[in-house]
Write a structure and sequence with these properties.
The structure holds 2 protein chains of 2 kinds. Chain A is mainly β. In chain A, the strands form 2 sheets. In chain A, strands 2, 4, 5, 6, 9, 10 and 11 form a 7-stranded mixed beta sheet that branches. In chain A, strands 1-3-8-7 form a 4-stranded antiparallel beta sheet, with no helix packed on it. Chain B is globular. In chain B, a hairpin with a 6-residue loop joins β4 and β5. In chain B, the strands form 2 sheets. In chain B, strands 2, 4, 5, 9, 10 and 11 form a 6-stranded mixed beta sheet that branches. Chain B contains no helices and 11 strands. Classes of the chains: A mainly beta, B mainly beta. Chains A and B meet through β5 of A and β5 and β10 of B.
């Protein structure tokens, strides 16, 4: 089982560049999330989605955009990269039945903006 | 005020001892409580979840929940070097909120 797959694993961006972090899951989960984790910190929610065509902001959405055209895919877009966006990004999902159920995490994308 | 707070680490325990991790949360409407373990450079993995007041045991791990005190804890009995990791407390109301984590080191 693939579970939640994130690409790329690592990326270095220059200030002002843009990129898309890819996330796909094969578990037919309705709920998907993007978190960022700064060194020594917990996970901060960027955006989440409760189903295809529906997205909402989390705690730290500024500088990011998302889309959810299919159940499987939930890409995260950075339009104008800034050093403050240097972080590890995790995509996660949980089943359709409940937001209370445990999250399945991808392996993360380590992003450096210089 | 932070939504989810964990006792600051790092926590160092000898092999075979009990490691005790604490977490408090601010939202009384929170329904579900999770403990994740995260090894350095890896993604979080679920250890325990608890929904009801009281204790829940799974192998060497025990989660304790007290909703009146807004407190959830994790005990690791017979700590092993492989338990050395950062432990994240997470609390769900509509969305999952994570604490900053407590790093545990088990010394042989």
């Amino acid at each position: 089982n693939a579970g939640v797959t994130q690409t790329p694993k690592f990326r270095i961006l220059k200030i002002g560049q843009s990129m898309t972090l890819q996330c796909t899951q094969d578990m037919n989960h309705n709920y998907m999330y993007w978190y960022r984790q700064d060194p020594g910190m917990g996970l901060k929610l960027i955006y989440y989605s409760v189903g295809a065509g529906i997205t909402d902001k989390g705690e730290v959405p500024n500088g990011y955009n998302v889309s959810r055209s299919t159940t499987e895919d939930f890409p995260l877009r950075l339009e104008l990269a800034a050093p403050s966006q240097t972080s590890v990004y995790f995509c996660a999902s949980n089943p359709a039945s409940s937001y209370n159920s445990p999250l399945h995490f991808g392996n993360g994308t380590r992003l450096t903006v210089t | 005020q932070k939504e989810v707070e964990q006792n600051s680490g790092p926590l160092s325990v000898p092999e075979g001892a009990i490691a005790s991790l604490n977490c408090t949360y601010s939202d009384r409407g929170s329904q579900s409580f999770f403990w994740y373990r995260q090894y350095s450079g890896k993604s979080p993995e679920l250890i325990m979840f608890i929904y009801s007041n009281g204790d829940k045991e799974d192998g060497r791990f025990t989660a304790q929940l007290n909703k009146a005190s807004q407190y959830v804890s994790l005990l690791i009995r017979d700590s092993q070097p492989s338990d050395s990791a950062t432990y994240l407390c997470a609390v769900a109301e509509v969305k999952l909120s994570f604490g900053a984590g407590t790093t545990v080191t088990v010394r042989a």
